[in-house]
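Hi all, posting the design record for the shared folder.

TITLE: backbone redesign
STEP: 1 of 1
STRUCTURE INPUT:
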């Protein structure tokens, strides 16, 4: 997760480029005194990136050169504003790009031809972008803050669902289900009309069944759907309202199924790339509403692509402010795997104290502190599978789970720190640890060392350590535990868990008697 962006003075010109699934867009904006942005110019050109990725598994040379040409044109446009086309404020690509076998070659071509360093949006930022869109929707409709609202983003390759209860995120799930992914998977059927709608339903049935199961225990009041295609044609689905009935959506889906891509372009004033994915978008959103038993959906009135570019300019600064949502998501995951919440929360509390007190020793960031908190909450989820080797099971569960607002590197770090809370510390022959770069391996070692000390102090699972006084000398970290009359259990645990702290920081951890 990126760190918070520094404040930008009012009146500053900021720019954002998004190499999306079906288009390449540019936003030129001015920073306002309240930190928001006023759009000055917005450009968008179609490019069939998603079609290449899901049809061929790679980006074609033709598409690559088309995108390079678009970017060069955008750089000329930026020069007219007096901006440096090689110093764009944010330049990102759709997250489906990583599924292309030649994504590195594609990005290198852009870097060489345009001097632009473009990175795919990671999972953590994608959820923050969805959160930003949802927050605006909740702000526009205050009543939704008091309701149970499901927000679903059907993207080009994946679908994400965020459950909001009284304005707070209480659940987050994702599915390998997307508009362009579905289009390419079903195109070979050569079905038309209602038959194509049935093919789309059959193809998506597994993911839809999982989504139904994930939210079967929730009484939903509203469904908000976000997505490039559905927002492109929102004005055709409703008459001045953001609410669209499933009956109306079903009618439009059937009408669209009987039209060619050219007809769709003419009927809805969209480009060919959007037309290709429109039918899967309509049918998927309709299916989601139907399986959840809802009679209508809400579609944001704002333009999807321009909105995402504006959000990209502020998404990084949200990182720290979303920590409560991240921790809530971790607690929900811990509850799902029946991990003892009192133990996890108390270890997290001790970790937070150790992290803050020893800041001058470890020199890590507040983001690292948050990752340590999440690891503490989740370190024993592996007992759901078996108490035996549960640290390895914890690693597996976390690696294969979603935590709101965190990217895959964050998830990997948390999984490894949780694994190393007992038994062996980090070793280069452990695959996930070996795959990290040196800096991240060091972070894992430091965080694991702190978690092991905290877990040793909560060895009884009785939350009896409430105060810790730390003293350091050149060789030892001495801990005094006021209120604990006999620390024999904690000393015994520290004997097996304090080793990593000594290896990493060069200090033996010793528990002294309370005076």
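Okay, here is what came back for every position:
SEQUENCE:
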């Amino acid at each position: 997760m990126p760190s918070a962006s520094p404040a930008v003075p009012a009146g500053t010109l900021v720019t954002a480029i998004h190499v999306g699934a079906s288009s390449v867009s540019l936003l030129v904006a001015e920073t306002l005194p309240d930190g928001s942005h006023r759009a000055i110019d917005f450009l968008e050109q179609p490019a069939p990136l998603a079609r290449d990725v899901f049809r061929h598994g790679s980006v074609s040379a033709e598409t690559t050169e088309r995108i390079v040409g678009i970017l060069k044109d955008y750089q000329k446009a930026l020069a007219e504003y007096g901006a440096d086309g090689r110093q764009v404020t944010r330049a990102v690509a759709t997250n489906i790009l990583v599924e292309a076998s030649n994504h590195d070659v594609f990005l290198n071509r852009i870097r060489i031809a345009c001097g632009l360093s473009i990175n795919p949006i990671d999972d953590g930022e994608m959820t923050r972008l969805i959160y930003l869109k949802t927050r605006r929707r909740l702000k526009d409709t205050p009543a939704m803050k008091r309701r149970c609202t499901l927000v679903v983003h059907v993207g080009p390759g994946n679908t994400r669902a965020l459950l909001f209860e009284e304005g707070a995120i209480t659940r987050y799930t994702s599915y390998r289900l997307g508009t362009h992914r579905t289009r390419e998977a079903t195109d070979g059927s050569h079905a038309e009309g209602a038959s194509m709608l049935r093919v789309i339903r059959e193809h998506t049935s597994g993911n839809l069944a999982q989504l139904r199961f994930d939210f079967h225990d929730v009484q939903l009041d509203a469904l908000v759907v976000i997505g490039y295609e559905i927002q492109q044609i929102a004005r055709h689905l409703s008459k001045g309202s953001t609410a669209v009935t499933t009956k109306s959506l079903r009618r439009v889906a059937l009408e669209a199924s009987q039209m060619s891509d050219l007809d769709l372009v003419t009927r809805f004033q969209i480009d060919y790339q959007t037309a290709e994915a429109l039918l899967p978008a309509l049918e998927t959103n309709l299916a989601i509403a139907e399986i959840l038993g809802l009679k209508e959906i809400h579609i944001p009135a704002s333009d999807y692509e321009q909105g995402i570019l504006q959000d990209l300019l502020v998404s990084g600064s949200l990182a720290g402010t979303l920590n409560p949502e991240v921790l809530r998501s971790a607690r929900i995951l811990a509850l799902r795997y029946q991990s003892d919440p009192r133990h996890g929360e108390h270890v997290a509390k001790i970790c937070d104290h150790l992290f803050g007190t020893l800041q001058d020793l470890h020199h890590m960031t507040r983001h690292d502190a948050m990752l340590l908190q999440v690891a503490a909450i989740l370190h024993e989820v592996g007992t759901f599978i078996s108490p035996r080797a549960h640290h390895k099971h914890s690693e597996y569960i976390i690696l294969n789970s979603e935590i709101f607002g965190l990217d895959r590197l964050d998830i990997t770090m948390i999984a490894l720190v949780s694994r190393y809370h007992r038994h062996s510390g980090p070793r280069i022959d452990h695959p996930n640890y070996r795959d990290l770069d040196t800096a991240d391996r060091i972070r894992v070692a430091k965080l694991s060392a702190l978690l092991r000390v905290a877990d040793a102090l909560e060895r009884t699972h009785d939350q009896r350590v409430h105060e810790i006084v730390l003293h350091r000398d050149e060789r030892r970290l001495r801990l005094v535990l006021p209120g604990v009359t006999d620390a024999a259990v904690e000393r015994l645990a520290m004997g097996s868990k304090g080793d990593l702290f000594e290896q990493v920081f060069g200090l033996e951890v010793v528990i002294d008697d309370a005076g």
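COMMENT: The chain has 22 helices and 14 strands.
Let me know if anyone wants the other runs.
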